[in-house]
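Per reviewer request, we include the raw input and output of the structure prediction for the construct analysed in the revised manuscript.
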Amino acid sequence: MKKLALLALIALALIVVACAAPTEAPKPTAVPATAVPATKPPEATKPPEATKPAATSAPAPTTAPTTAASTAGKPLKVGLLTDQTGALAIYGPMLERGFELGLNYATGGTNTVAGRSIQVITKDTASKPDVGTQVARDLLEKENVDMLVGVPSSGVALAVNELAKQYKKIYIAQPAAGTEITGKNFNPYVFRTGRSNEQDALASGAALLKLGKTFVQIAPDYAFGYGSATGFYNVVKAGGGKFAVNDDKDKVGAIYIPQDAKDFTPYLQKVLDTKAEVLIVTWAGAGFVPLFQQMQQLGVFKAMIVYTGIGDNQTLKTGFTAAVGVKGINVYHYTLPKNDINDWLVKNHLAKFKTPPDLFTEGGFTAAQMLVAGLKATNGDPDPDKLIKFYEGNFSFDGPKGKYSVRPYDHVMLQTLFVAEILNVTDPDFKFVKLANEIKPDDFTPSCTLEGEYASRCPKK
């Protein structure tokens, strides 16, 4: 059997049917969130009295908010868009738990900013753009939320992008990985704390090109899949690699599979027919496990090298039994970062939820950090113009993975990614991986892909 390699893309977390997609996306099926075995938690610790989650080089506004008199003491409302019943429901609890703990940490346990309490209103989008659009609109019109955060689905995130612009509200995208969110579908009201598909691809480019010369991709038929496949296509082609099928900028060497597919056989047979040396797999959600099981049954691992993402704990436990010993890109695993903030997150997550943080817990945590940092800088005023000025002012902060920085012109969040090696899939505390390499933000630079009226924001080459 050829050596199996893994890379991070599930982002994973990610995302469903979107605008300007090359093919029409299927309707996702409902998948319940996966329960996680309990581990014995340590005693909870209090967040630091003087919190430092948002160190930044951008100065806070020197003038008092014009709305101070009318908003003093009034709760700040945040709409948290998640997935509790849809195709990416496995990621919803990670986002929600991380956001809760992030608020706790960033506010020193008070859940207030400038004397204003933070009220979080959580809504299920079911990873469907039409549902996500409606619940986001309800949050904006009926609940009068001040800011939006979420969502696992890139397709939903792209729809929320437009609402943020329409209603002039700040939207922090997390964990949706679609590059378009801060690319061709960018608008100034949208930021992200999650990484993009392109960042995944760039971080893994050098490793990919060492595995072979001919490639083929499979990806889900919706926004996350399109963005990921495009990112990998560009990286491979730039390095001199070739795709054995669909080798053009429209199809990007990919075979797209409906997100709700149960039988992957016809698509995997097309993969085998290409006789490519390397298969790049992008997937997210519960379908990852049956996909890998059917790949094993059809002999895909024997026919070619497989390159994919090291994902959430349950997927590793149930779907990666054949992958012990391989390496790949990872967005976050609780055992990898070594810093005080991650230690705080791990200890308090164990204490409250009886299980360690998972793949996108860190993303929810950092979204809360970013939100609180902005509101502190504006003295509790959610005015979007003030928040945009602050976030675009070379804003950076320390979080569970180290330093995070907002790129001012397109709002991409520069952050660390990890190369990890799978040690086992049986450890009761989910200690499945070890660190092979830490890829710092300065090690790879995502391109600026803004279009139309915003294209001029990109630096001139």
